[in-house]
Amino acid sequence: CHTSGMLTPNGKEYAQKIPREELTHLILKLLQAWKEPLSHFNQHIEHHQELPDDSLSKAKQISNMVHELKTAVEKVTEKARFSISIFKVSCMCSTGLSVSNEANMMSDSDFIHCFRRDSNKVQSYLKILKCRIMPGNSC
């Protein structure tokens, strides 16, 4: 996976110990890391004539959802007055991921496996943030 080099907490217990700002930064970093690979993946599957239109539509929908989620997390971050401007600079420059080459070399099943793994991480981190912000909602 192209994000394997990113330091992420192993397990919910460790993620709960991370300060809110750092956890938010990690979520945004993961979402940003998938922007280009999802774009490449969409271009790749568009060339598969045997795929039904429904599959192509779902792939585009996933890319749009990731972009919308990233935008929403950025807005929440701005409202919470975290230093988003510093994050945007560091996120673009310091990931150190050679995204396009690895994304092109991965098989579709590996790509989907990696995306699912990172999606599960983002979902878990968002649940932790939600519980910190609004305790009592089945936390």
Automatic annotation (TrEMBL):
Pfam family for this entry, one: Hormone_1
| Position of the signal peptide | none
> What does the UniProt entry say about where the protein is found?
Secreted
Provide one Gene Ontology cellular component.
extracellular space
Which InterPro entries does this entry report, sorted A to Z? Answer: 4_helix_cytokine-like_core (IPR009079), Somatotropin/Prolactin (IPR001400), Somatotropin_CS (IPR018116)
What molecular function does GO assign, one term?
hormone activity
Keywords of this entry:
Hormone, Secreted
**One GO BP annotation of this record:** positive regulation of receptor signaling pathway via JAK-STAT
Residues annotated as transmembrane: none
Domain of life of the organism encoding this protein: Eukaryota
Q: What is its main location?
A: secreted
Family according to the record: Belongs to the somatotropin/prolactin family.
The protein's name: PRL protein
